[in-house]
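Q: Focus on the shape:
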Amino acid sequence: MAPLVPVLSAPPAGAVPAAGPPTASSPPARNALERYVKQKPRWKRCEADTPAVLQCATIKVPLDYRVPGGKRIDLAISRIKSTAPGKRHGVLLSNPGGPGGQGIDTPLDMRKNLPKAVRQKYDLIGMDPRGVGRSSPVSCGMKPEDENWLRPYKEEAFAKDVAWARDVADKCRAKAGDRLPHITTRNTARDMDLLRAILGETKISFLGYSYGTYLGAVYTQLFPGRADRFVLDSAVDPKRAWRGMIQWWAEGAEPAFDRWTEWAAERSETYKLGATPKQVERTLWKLVAQADEKPIDVGGQLTTGDDIRSGLRSLVFTPEWATDEVVLLKRAAAGRPTSARKFAAFAGSAGSGRPGGAEVPSDNARASFFAVVCGDNSAAWSRDPERYRQDAIADKKRYPLFGDMASSIKPCAFWDKSAEPVTKVNNRVGSLVVQNEWDSQTPLPSGQALHAALRGSKMVTVRGGEGHGVYPNGNVCTDGAVNEYLLTGKLPAKDVICRATPKSNEEARKDRKRDALPGSPLPDRAPDRF
């Protein structure tokens, strides 16, 4: 069967009306898209220092799918071919999260981590999403200090923060204003479908982490007949994209904080942070107050109260690690010698993502992140700075760890209006949602919300599971459910409840320690992204 040409099915809900630019169903647009499908990727070894099994190529995609005969941009793709062509089922594309996460190396991660039987079933496919990495990367010309975007609310500094947010939006508009409206999840989903057609496949399978779950869900909404086996790991609530998802970071941290204080109190003889949860809580807030008064010197690194709140927000999802860090912080606050290396989690933002080579602008990960979270749904972002001030004040009271940082002003307040309406996800396409109970970036209710929106999905919940990103983690229950689906295409008969194991949570803890540096492995788990 010939591959279906992308974007030529009946216009999905929310499509651009006929009165606007030419639609993809018009004859000229159809002909232009058919020319894109005829591309033949010129596969070659990606880099001299990468394994020869990983092949890379570059294809062209329309900047604006409403005008496919117009400007084109590059899309960098990669593959590792099936290790057993006779058992091959199709292609398995992966997205590591972000928005702004580079995906060229994900086939190597899948080759390393997926079981042999799954690797034999698929050609493993990666891509840098449009605007990211080697796919015509966008830049706003931001300086490093501009990228510090999760700012605590301070009454005396708010006017300066508003000016910063406006300045970043202006820089992005001036540097990449012709492209930013088209760096969206909907267009990346269209790129996925064009790639599917170029590869000669009638359907595509997908393994998406974090932001990748939203990308996968949007694909199933736009192209329901072309989605094969979709695994959506650590899921985004589509109704809260994107301001509401950032606010989830604050809301979701409070139950984890309570769990942590109970855990530390039960081990008070070992850690001496307090014999009751309230005592542990008081110990922490005394440290925050002390650091607010005078930053705590940790091996030459000055740590503020805001640094502590920001760092602890993700730490509390792994109680043992949070406790170890607070004990060391308490030691530093008492003037006892400590090493700054142990405090990476309290050092502020982890950076903007993986380096991408000399051809990738230094601010590309953050610029592409803003393009999506601001441009996917501009209606989610108020244009009134006062709204952000009031929300930050209220949410700091409701969610003391992170509420003000999540809700205060962002460059999205000054972004241009979205080129298309937000995608409403409400289809019956079969998919498998996989979710840890204790996830700092996409809390459990977020995963449950995507499961409810994808009415044909089943969900695997890992009770007691810690960390962002589940599959694979060595847990027989979770890995078994995902492997079975990828191998057979059969979803579980009903939702699955698994129990975390010490080994699976230990693996998550190792990954969380790598979060302190950019370039974490699949999935891309930077603590200020999805």
Summary: The CA atoms of residues 478 and 498 lie 6 Å apart. The chain has 17 helices and twelve strands.
